[in-house]
Each structure stands twice: as C-alpha cells, then as structure tokens.
C-alpha cells in the first residue's frame, strides 16, 4: 500500500468513530509502526484534517468531516452520481440545490478517469415525472419539527376525503415517485403512520418535544413498512 493510500485509509478508520482509536490499533490496521502512525497523523493535521487527540490517548475525527471520493471505484462513483441525479428529480428545491452543489464538489476532486465516468455515465435515472401535488404546509416546517423532535398538531384529509385532527411526532420526510410523505408517530393511533404532505390541511407546532430517540422511532416505522410490503 502506498503512503497516500495509507493516509486515506487512516482517515477512513477515524471517520465516524464515537471513541478515540489508539495508535497501536491504527498502526496495526495500516501495517506500520506507531512512530510512523504519529507522523501520518501530524501530516494529515498539517493538511487540515480535523483530527483530535494525542499520543497515549487515541485519535478521532471531529464530526462533519467528509472525505473526497478519491478512492471510489467506477461502480461506486456511478452509484453516487445516480443518487444525486435522482435527488435532483425527486427532491424539493432545497434538496435539488444541495444535490447540484454536492455534484460540483465531487467533480472538483475527481481524477481524469472519474471525470470520464461523470460525463459519460453508463447508468441514468428515469425521466422526470409530472411533478408533485403541492401541500399547504411547506417542507421547511416539517424539517424544523424533525430536527427539533417537536410534536405537531395537524388537520389531515385521507384518500376517502375523511378529515381528522391529530398530534404527530415527525420522524422523516419521504420522496416517492408521485408524492411526498411524512413518517411519524401518531398519538391518535398510538403507532407509526405515513402521511402524504399534500393531504395535510394545516400543521401547527405545539412547542412540546416528543420523548425518546427519533432514531428508535424511525426504526419502528421502517419495520412496519417492511412488514406491510411482505404481507
């Protein structure tokens, strides 16, 4: 393994860790001495990598640091490009803009072979659909409630035209082929539910934070959707 490859591998080993990794562990993974490992850490830090820690305590990356896709295989890069282009087609203006900026960042660090994949892809997303029905409640309001784990009181009209009022705990936004949905815990039903955003007639934040971890509730919603697909 070349030195540059070891440096990138070191960053990969550090990324996403919740606890510091010892120099002994990292050196063993890279097949180098601890002394060489300390030199690698110093070099990466000098180049701007936000590595926290010191010898004897272990190392980790500060949250929010992303590696440029220099080590992507052709198939991995095509998967990233296909995902970004799909977001551009299905996402709202905020996500579409983010996908465009992300693609520009990927392009800026690609080697010539990667640029060829970008300009002449072998996989393409499907055509743009007719668009999505607009809801009365903007997606930004849902994003804020999801981020803050805030309960929201909604007025909802189902597919049969029946209206109800309920308090929901927004967990995530879903972007489907022909609709946008909110995955949520519904206090009325005492269970996870999916609501089409265009059928939400009104949504008012309650100012109350819902209990528990959003990740655990979202896992329950995913399991429910999986069970529904199998039945």
TrEMBL record:
Segments forming a coiled coil: none
Extract the signal peptide range. Answer: none
Quote the PROSITE patterns the UniProt record gives: WYL (PS52050)
Gene3D superfamilies cross-referenced by the UniProt entry: Winged helix-like DNA-binding domain superfamily/Winged helix DNA-binding domain
Q: Name one Pfam family in it.
A: WYL
Q: What superkingdom heads the lineage?
A: Bacteria
Query: Where does the WYL domain lie?
Result: 140-204
Cited InterPro entries: CBASS_pafABC_assoc_protein, HTH_11, WH-like_DNA-bd_sf, WH_DNA-bd_sf, WYL_dom
Domain Helix-turn-helix type residue range list: 6-59
Q: PANTHER family annotated for this entry?
A: PROTEIN PAFB (PTHR34580:SF3), PTHR34580
Entry protein name: Transcriptional regulator
The major lineage groups are:
Bacteria, Pseudomonadati, Thermodesulfobacteriota, Desulfovibrionia, Desulfovibrionales
């Amino acid at each position: 393994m070349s030195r540059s490859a070891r440096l990138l591998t070191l960053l990969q080993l550090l990324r996403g860790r919740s606890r510091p990794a010892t120099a002994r562990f990292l050196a063993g993974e890279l097949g180098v001495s601890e002394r060489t490992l300390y030199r690698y850490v110093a070099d990466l830090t000098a180049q701007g990598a936000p590595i926290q820690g010191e010898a004897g305590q272990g190392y980790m990356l500060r949250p929010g640091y992303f590696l440029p896709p220099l080590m992507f295989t052709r198939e991995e890069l095509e998967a990233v490009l296909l995902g970004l282009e799909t977001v551009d087609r299905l996402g709202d203006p905020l996500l579409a803009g983010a996908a465009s900026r992300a693609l520009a960042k990927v392009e800026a660090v690609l080697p010539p072979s990667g640029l060829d994949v970008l300009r002449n892809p072998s996989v393409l997303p499907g055509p743009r659909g007719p668009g999505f029905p607009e809801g009365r409640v903007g997606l930004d309001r849902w994003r804020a409630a999801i981020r803050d784990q805030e309960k929201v009181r909604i007025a909802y009209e189902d597919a049969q035209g029946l209206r109800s009022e309920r308090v929901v705990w927004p967990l995530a936004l879903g972007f489907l082929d022909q609709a946008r949905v909110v995955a949520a815990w519904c206090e009325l039903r005492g269970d996870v539910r999916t609501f089409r955003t265009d059928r939400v007639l009104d949504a008012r934040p309650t100012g109350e934070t819902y209990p528990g971890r959003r990740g655990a509730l979202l896992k329950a919603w995913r399991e429910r959707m999986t069970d529904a697909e199998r039945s």
